[in-house]
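Quick start: read one record
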Amino acid sequence: MQRKEQLITDIENLLNSYDGIRPTTINPDLLKFMDEETLVSIIDSLLNQKEQNSKSDLQWLEQFKTNS
């Protein structure tokens, strides 16, 4: 598998890692015009978003722990 194809697959996998969200498929032709740096940037952005969501979820859970 070429690197760009792998990056596109990684983006799909990240998008599909959210619970309760319908599976996402990306037509690779839509992303093929992007260079590898742009695809890596998209992956980085998705990972940062997941990290922020995890921190937010943890903060939300912690408020119940301290109030109990």
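The chain is about 70% helix and 0% strand.
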